[in-house]
Amino acid sequence: MDYQYPEFEVVRNADRCIGCRACERQCANEVHYYDADLGKMMCDESKCVNCQRCVTLCPTRALKIVKSDNTFRENANWTMENIKEIYKQAETGGVLLSSMGNPKPLPVYWDKILINASQVTNPPIDPLREPMETRTFLGQKPTEVKRDENGKIVNNLSSQLKLEVPIMFSAMSFGSISKNAHESLARAAAELGTYYNTGEGGLHKDFYKYGPNTIVQVASGRFGVHKEYLEAGAAIEIKMGQGAKPGIGGHLPGTKTVGEVSRTRMIPEGSDAISPAPHHDIYSIEDLRQLVFSLKEATEYKKPVIVKIAAVHNVAAIASGIARSGADIIAIDGFRGGTGAAPTRIRDNVGIPIELALASVDERLRQEGIRGNVSIVVGGSIRNSADVVKAIALGADAVYIGSAACIAMGCHQCRACHAAKCNWGIATQRPDLVKRLNPDVGYKRLVNLVEAWNHEIKEMMGGMGINSIESLKGNRLMLRGVGLNEKELEILGIKHAGE
Amino acid sequence: MLREGEVRIPSGCAISGIFSKKGKMLNGRSIIDSIATMHDRSNGLGGGFAGYGIYPQYKDAYAFHIFYDNTSAKLACEKFIDKHFDVINLSKIPTKKVAAITNEPIIMRYFVKPLPNRLKESQLEENEFTVQCVVKINTTINGAYVFSSGKNMGVFKAVGYPEDVGEFYRLDEYEGYCWTAHGRYPTNTPGWWGGAHPFAMLDLSIVHNGEISSYDANRRFIEMFGYKCTLLTDTEVITYIIDYLHRRLGFSFTEVSEIIAAPFWDTIESMKPEDRERLTYFRNAFSNMLITGPFSIMVGFDGGLMALNDRLKLRSMVVGEKDDMVYIASEECAIRVIEPNLDKLWSPKGGEPVIVTLEEGLK
Ligand code: SF4
Ligand code: SF4
Ligand code: SF4
Q1: Which of A56, A98, A412 is the best mutation target for the ligand 3 pocket, counting ligand atoms within 8 Å of the beta carbon and taking the most?
Q2: pLDDT 10s digits, A69-118
Q3: B200 and B346: one domain?
Q4: Is B107's pLDDT higher than 50?
Q5: pLDDT for residue B283
Q6: Nearest Cα to A306, choosing from A183, A145, A447, A195?
Q7: pLDDT tens per residue, range B261-273
Q8: ω before B198 within 30° of 0 (cis)?
């Protein structure tokens, strides 16, 4: 009864296969094997997660992975997926686990927003001929001016983060991803003049040297948090929630808690690292304020504090509380944000789209006159430079990219990170797999990606006649919606195309 | 048809300004002559003037110039004014029939001072109290629009070519040490007189040529501080930003220009340390008030005039000098027509403010 026909079929073109067995060596899921008796390559496709590793590395292009066309009797309500999940749970009694971002066909508002360009009344600007600036500072902005006895302006800014590009790498812990992936991110952040984020797994001792480009995270599990760690980074992020799994804590399977991961986290090898849903010292907004200030005290007010929350229904009210809590930056993670492991039901059903969350948070903070108290960083999921431009025009100061960064390093979005056998050397701790990601290559690809996006951002800005990113921020008149209803337009604070 | 404020209308324009550093009283005729030469830069859909030093007999009172659509708006507004201000003098603003100017609203002028008990109750300082009253009238009394509210200065504007507007308001009967003028080329009709420029707030008056690309970023930011952009014009939002930076935060006009037309980072990095630090601080702390896209503006204020181009200088602007006189205009011809023998004529660089003020002791 529980037998399930494999989701994918491995199609091998026998005319092309030369029997080199590369696919066998490359597949950590042990799909491919050589049958000596038959003298040919065979496979057990039931284990395939469609990560495309064997396809990419087969020297003769003999392989492809296709979706199986075996189906149950068609039913729009009882889809095959729904039925299969019931079989699985009826058999195991367990919670379904998934990884990466919500794959459901829910609306992607970025794709229903269009960007403006200048014609006639206002000249477009060419980024190759005129200066075009994307430098951004994150942190609280003053509403008062201070002068010394000679009338000279005194810099009264609290600690800030300086970004050469409005893009940062979002939190992915060492543990959920490999050391080589972390190294790639850290080096890329340093070269780009931006920041990467440790996630909740602590900071590997080898990476302290990237501290000026590191955001260190403090999550409910407090793994790997100590004074030296807090002092190592350029900013501290308190993780209250994550877009992929609002309302629950981080989850690192024991298979990934090995060697250096366990030492960095300061927990025993092989133990599941499960962070509590809440921070046990934060049960309300006053408690958050205390944590913000104790972290600031611990680091002598030299580091901005970020509070990261998942985009949930009353996100605007929550953000307004955070903006008054002393935090310098709010990071909001949308429901399509990625994860290394999350309960499927939560990933697919909890939280709201980042576009709507961002628009309502930015608007609420402005209505309350406290938008300057905090910077806003959004993630989950930003897929390309146009998403970045739209996010900034809706009101974000900068964006976080996680899934896009993984993809740049080779991830094929197979959504099997929780199995800890990532064939691309990212979401795994198996040394033979980890070494597949060469940090020299990984870091360069990340740099290329962000530089390419930044160039595209400049071109789009130039088209709008804007030569500095600050003039794009919150500039919603540069956006129009297509195919959106009145309510959606109202929440996004934009007009419909043609208006 | 939507009125200005219900829809955002892009415009091209002509601007012109005259200033006497010695505080000589200049007849309004010369500014009409200057702006008239740039006739082709306007299209008859808006023109206006600001004069400074024109009401010496009432120089301590706020001069409100108000458009009314009808008498009921006038009644409601006058009731409001009486409740908040002591009215020292009121009259219709003298006009003369000009064929090209039609559909005029009721145009009134009031010299007022805040009622001391009202002022005390509000716990506001005199200027802020007046600003809030003006905003109240403009946003809540339908059909009433205060388009000038400074002391010893006044704005005169209408739908029409600027030279006709000047005749209409009989500007040759006024004298001031500073005049600015504006001819507008909106891409569609603004439909009412309030949409013409200069835009003014207290003694600050602004004429602007250009279309800024940072408009909505600036608007949404400045509205956090109690301003309400009702006209949706660039000039309005620029005025509020300058008011906020200068009057409320106490920045000098040079500093204001360093914030709204900040230099590029490359330039900032090559500056001497003190300037670099200040400009880096400005671009971080006040980044939301950076204005991008083409603009040339002239900012009139009590005792001075500032002219400023966007940092790329995407709009033309020239400055001429003769003795104590300073002339600023979109085109050289607008200066030559009133002063053919200039001592000096130059075109300021993008982002570089030209600030002229009355000589010591004249204010
Ligand atoms: S990698 Fe390609 S050629 Fe080599 S054994 Fe596998 S399918 Fe055959
Ligand atoms: S899991 Fe990946 S490597 Fe293995 S067969 Fe499937 S696609 Fe190929
Ligand atoms: S990180 Fe690896 S395991 Fe996770 S989705 Fe990407 S390719 Fe698959």
Answers
A1: A412
A2: 998 999 999 999 999 999 999 999 999 999 999 999 999 999 999 999 88
A3: yes
A4: yes
A5: 97
A6: A195
A7: 999 999 999 999 9
A8: yes
User: Which A residues 378-407 touch B at CB under 8 Å?
Assistant: 395
The residue type of B29 is: R
Please list every residue in chain B whose beta carbon sits closer than 8 Å to the beta carbon of residue A131.
264-266
Give the closest residue to A139 by CA, choosing from A165, A171, A112, A162.
A162
Rg (CA), chain B: 19
CATH number, domain containing residue B107: 3.30.70.260
Query: What is the pLDDT at residue A189?
Result: 98
Within 8 A of B218 by CB-CB distance, chain A residues are: 471
- Do B100 and B160 touch, CB atoms closer than 8 A? yes
Which of A280-289, A372-381, B337-346 is predicted with the least confidence, judged by mean pLDDT? A280-289
Instruction: Write out pLDDT tens, residues A10-32.
Output: 999 999 999 999 999 999 999 99
A345 secondary structure, DSSP code: H
Domains of chain A: total: 2
Start-end of H helices in chain B: 29-36, 71-84, 116-122, 126-140, 162-168, 215-222, 234-242, 253-260, 265-269, 273-285, 333-336
For residues B179 and B267, membership in a common domain is answered with yes
For chain B, give percent helix, strand, coil, nearest 5: 35, 30, 35
Domain boundary among A94, A118, A153: A94
- Which residues have CB under 6 Å of ligand 3? A 51, 99-100, 406, 411-417, 422, 424, 426-427
Q: Is residue B3 part of a domain?
A: no
Q: Is the pLDDT of residue A316 over 60?
A: yes
Closest Cβ–Cβ partner in B217, B250, B312 for A472: B217
- Do B292 and A467 make contact, defined as CB atoms within 8 angstroms? yes
* Average pLDDT value for chain A: 94
Clarify whether residues A72 and A143 are in a common domain.
no
- Give me the amino acid identity at A107: P
Place of tokens 């990532």: A422
pLDDT at A454: 97
Cα separations (Å) of A71 from A7, A104, B49? 10, 19, 77
What is residue B9's predicted lDDT score, i.e. its pLDDT? 58
**Which one of B106, B128, B151 terminates a domain?**
B151
The answer to whether residue B133 is catalytic is: no
Range of the domain at A70: 8-94
- Assess B254–A contact: CB distance below 8 Å, yes or no: no
Neighbours of A63 (CB within 10 A): 22
Closest chain B residue by Cα to residue A157: B285
| Nearest one of B195, B203, B157 to B177, comparing CA atoms | B203
Q: Does A141 touch chain B (CB under 8 A)?
A: yes
Residue length, chain B? 363
Interface mutation vs chain B, best among A138, A373, A471, most B CBs within 10 Å: A471
B18 belongs to a structural domain: yes
**Could you tell me the pTM of the whole model?**
0.93
Does a structural domain hold residue A167?
Answer: yes
Judge if A89 and A215 occupy the same domain. Answer: no
| Residue nearest to ligand 1 atom 8, measured at CA | A17
Between chains, do B216 and A144 touch, taking CB under 8 Å as contact? no
CB neighbour list of residue A129: distance below 8 Å, 6 or more residues apart: none
One-letter amino acid identity for B56? Answer: P
Per residue in B18-72, pLDDT (tens digit) is 999 999 999 999 999 998 887 776 676 788 999 999 999 999 999 999 999 999 9
B69 within 8 A of B141, measured Cβ to Cβ:
no
Ligand 1: centre distance to CA A26 (Å): 10
Confidence of residue B238 (pLDDT cuts 50, 70, 90): very high
The complex's ipTM? 0.91
A103, A403 Cβ separation under 8 angstroms = no
Cα B50 → chain centroid = 7
* Any atom of ligand 2 within 6 Å of the Cβ of A53: yes
